[in-house]
């Protein structure tokens, strides 16, 4: 693992972050907000990490998946209530408020997508 700036992944991170902000700000319900946003957020996290860290893509994919699954399972145990952040709109957007198994599927599909894109476009990477 080395620290190395990667412009394409950084640009992708900025684009995905802007997209996520638009989804959070303008959509309150529906497939895009509740499922596609979760699909994109793990891709955003992967790209953000790959913007600065050079390591095998499988390591980053697993780290992002562990983080996203952990946050989702913390929702099952009402993390926002324990932290007294239920009324904090930013915390609700970032951490989520309800556990959904469909979110776990969206996270998995997002990670599989970006992982495959990464290993296909960087032929030097191997599992």
From TrEMBL:
Pfam families: DUF2809. The keyword Transmembrane applies. The chain crosses the membrane at residues 34-53, 58-78, 90-117. Keywords: Membrane, Transmembrane, Transmembrane helix. The keyword Transmembrane applies. It comes from the Bacteria. This is DUF2809 domain-containing protein. It comes from Psychroserpens luteus.
């Amino acid at each position: 693992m080395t620290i190395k700036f990667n412009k394409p992944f950084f640009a992708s991170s900025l684009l995905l972050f802007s997209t996520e902000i638009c989804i959070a700000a303008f959509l309150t319900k529906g497939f895009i907000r509740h499922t596609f946003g979760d699909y994109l957020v793990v891709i955003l996290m992967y790209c953000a990490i790959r913007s600065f860290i050079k390591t095998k893509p499988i390591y980053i994919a697993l780290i992002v998946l562990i983080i996203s699954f952990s946050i989702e399972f913390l929702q099952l145990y009402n993390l926002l209530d324990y932290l007294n952040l239920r009324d904090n709109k930013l915390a609700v957007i970032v951490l989520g408020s309800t556990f959904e198994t469909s979110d776990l599927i969206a996270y998995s599909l997002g990670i599989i997508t970006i992982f495959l894109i990464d290993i296909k476009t960087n032929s030097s990477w191997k599992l």
